[in-house]
């Protein structure tokens, strides 16, 4: 993204859809790729809803907690480099809504130089829970060990393809970061055997890209970007002396990196050994092989030709504690015979309609590995599935929250997902997937649970907020709250009662406990009298979730942990409302289904 497209003219490429009167958050390269791949209107809608020119409170807290920040920058010679900045949490400090102060300790041998006026792109990844946020900034100052950056754009990204790691920063190594000699190897177009092996065992890649626009003989808008790519170890392949290829997986359809490459092929890559702190930085030229889909999971293939590289042993003062948890979104790697690794085929046992556009699908819990006794899932986690051959021979991966409570899963040996019809794969499930048909099951994952997301549940209890199909994790969490005797309030926002899934279950529970409240915000038109008659015991309110509504149905909300799931715009608005009531960002946990 990295810049506004305020000065785009019809002759310069794609233009802002006519429905909008304000500039697009995308430049012409991004819009050209979005047009090519048919995501232009979707990307515009997402970008306008999520891209900010400031840091909200959640972003401030997020960056302040990071031990690593990945940054992309352009050198004076035009080469792009990606690098990693390290420190104990707190080394990145938001000073106001528009600035970040970074205690700058660069790694030994780092080719990146941060100069006032430079554009830089940053991505923060909480590797222990897969949260990801992006920044595009401009350096205002860099002196005395502190770099101050002004935020140009701030926005969140989905958790796809991020491997879970528990990263520890070594204080002793941190004190000598950048000053103590390290073994450094440099090269140009040809990679050595150590560098090739480094790449081929990596499951994570950071990529820096940027653009410089020139129009009518004047300097246009410039920017840099940094983003994360992940997959199974070896998802990046080395060909020849220094050519890399990797699959471009299904993503958020914004195509910032590909859009930058459309106008500027210079990109930088960063590989990290998270056990030893070794880094491998490469700069070169990138291109897109639009019709190449031979790599597992590829929607298209990325190609990179190396120009220079820097390999530093022990560059970062980090180690990984415990095992690595691969992303359930990672496409399965190909085996020696070209087939994918073993997967679990699950047969659909039953299906039922919850609403006119939500269907629940029931599967048998797959057999556990021998000796494995851990529960199949926690309330709030999701199940991951692969769907081969639905789109031009591609395998599409999708995840849905497990809508059945863990107690039900344990007692029946079955689990359910509840799917709203909204796209190609969900349409296939609704229209084609019948009982005894088989689907490819990848596993269960997710940190949006009562025990993982919150440090502890306070005596005041829990507030569960759901919007539309975001009710699926709330249903499972609600059951856990009842079984643990937590005070719980459910606040469910829907357009009308015909859209409400599981409301009868909530209604029955609300009548059986003194400290359980179920409230519904009806945002569409309809008769409140009919709604009240249909669901006695449920508190119904017209309009959207507001501070007054929260105060009425959950007067002690300030003392509770909040879990919410729904459309991004709804969650952003609810978060702002909760903060106005005195809740901190640490009390508010959320899951998005927009990826």
Q: Give me the Rg, rounded.
A: 25 Å
Look at the structure and give the mean pLDDT.
87
Using the alpha-carbon principal axes, give the shape.
globular
Taking the sheet with the most strands, its summary is:
8 strands, antiparallel
Oligomer state of the chains in this structure: single chain
**What is the number of helices?**
14
The low-confidence runs, each spanning 5 or more residues with pLDDT under 50, are 2-13, 214-219, 336-342
User: Helical content, roughly?
Assistant: 10-25%
Feature tags:
595 residues; alpha+beta; 29 strands; disordered N terminus
Structure description:
There is one protein chain. The protein is globular, with a radius of gyration of 25 Å. By secondary structure, the chain is of the alpha+beta class. Strands 9, 10, 11, 12, 13, 14, 15 and 16 form an eight-stranded antiparallel sheet that branches. It has a seven-stranded antiparallel sheet with strand order 2-1-5-6-7-4-3. Strands 21-20-23-18-19-22 form a six-stranded antiparallel sheet. The relative contact order is 0.09. It is 20% helix and 37% strand. Residues 2-13, 214-219 and 336-342 have low confidence and may be disordered. It has 14 helices and 29 strands.
